Amino acid sequence: MPDRGLFTLGHSPDPDDAFMFYAIAKNKIDLRGYRFEHRLEDIQTLNERARRGELHISAISIHAYAYVTDKYALLPCGASMGDGYGPIVVRKHPTSNVQHRTSNEDGDLVDSLRGCVIAVPGEMTSAFLALQLFLGKFDYLVVPFDEIFDAIKSSRADAGLIIHEGQLTYARSGFEKIIDLGEWWKCQTGLPLPLGGNVLRKDIPRPVQHDLFEIIRESIDYGLTHWDEAVRHSLPYARDMNVDLAGKFIGMYVNEFTCDYGEIGRAAIRKFLEDASDKGYIDTPIDVEFVE
User: Fold this and answer.
1) Residues 157, 203: one domain?
2) Does 138 fall in a domain?
3) What's the whole-model pTM score?
4) 30, 51, 149, 223 — which has fewest CB within 10 A?
5) What order of strands is seen across the sheet that includes strand 159-162?
6) Rounded (10°) angle between helices 227-234 and 243-253
7) Under a CB-based contact definition with an 8 Å cutoff, are residues 198 and 75 in contact?
8) How many CA atoms lie within 13 Å of 107's alpha carbon, on the beta-carbon side?
9) Where in the sequence is the domain holding 17, given as residue range(s)?
10) Catalytic (active site) residue 38
11) Catalytic residue among 11, 56, 164, 233
12) Residue 215 located in a structural domain
C-alpha cells in the first residue's frame, strides 16, 4: 500500500489513552498506508498545542476545545466521559475550614472551599471548568497533574483537584475526597460530565479526515475486543496501579461514549460549554462541530 503520509497524534501518557491507541501504536489494525507519530504529553500541554494548531490529531480537554473550533473538529469517537463520576477535590486531613460533604450542604462546602488554595492541573482542563461551575471564584495554584498530591503534602495548597489515576489512588496516598464533580454534575443535569475528546485538524482533506476517523474508531474497537492485551499494553502508563486497578480506571473512561458520543454525549458537551459561557468562564462563541 502506498505511503499516504505521516500524521502527528497527541495524547496523554495515561492508561485510558494508551488503551485507545494501542492498536495504532502496535499496528494491530489496517492503517491504510498512513503513519502516525505519537506525541505523549500532559493534557495541559496538549491543550496549549491545540490552540496553536500544531498537531494533526490530538486528545484535548472539552474546555479547551471551545477555543480551537476554528482549527479543529471533534471526532465522534474517543470521548472521556464521567457518567456520575469524574475529577475529585481531595485534602490531606480534616481541617476546621473544610467540611465533609453531605447531601444537603453544598452551600457550606462552597463557602469553605472558597477559603482554600486549591492545586489544579491547568486552567484549560475540563476539571478546572467543572470546579468553576461548582464553586465560582476561588484561589488556586497550577501544578502538573501528577504533582498535586505533593503540593498538598508540602502545604503549598490546602486541597487538590485530581484527574487521571489519582481518582482511584488518593486514599492510599493519604488523602480523602471532599467532592466528586462528575457526581455533582450528574445530579444537577442528568448528563455525563464531558472531560476529554479527540480533535482533527480541519485543513486535512475530507477523504483523509474520514480515513483517520475510521482508523481511530477501529483502534478503540480493537482495544475493547482485546481487553486483556490492551490493558497490559497500558500498564507502563498506569502510575501506582496494578493490572486490576488499571483495568478499573480504563473501564471508567473507555465506555459507550468513547465508541460514539451519541445524542446524550453531544448534549452533555453543549450543556457544559453553554453553562460555562453563560457564567462568563468561556469568552468565545460556542461552535461544536464533529467530523462526519
Assistant:
1) no
2) yes
3) 0.91
4) 30
5) 139-142, 117-120, 159-162, 88-91, 176-180
6) 110
7) yes
8) 1
9) 6-81+192-278
10) no
11) 164
12) yes
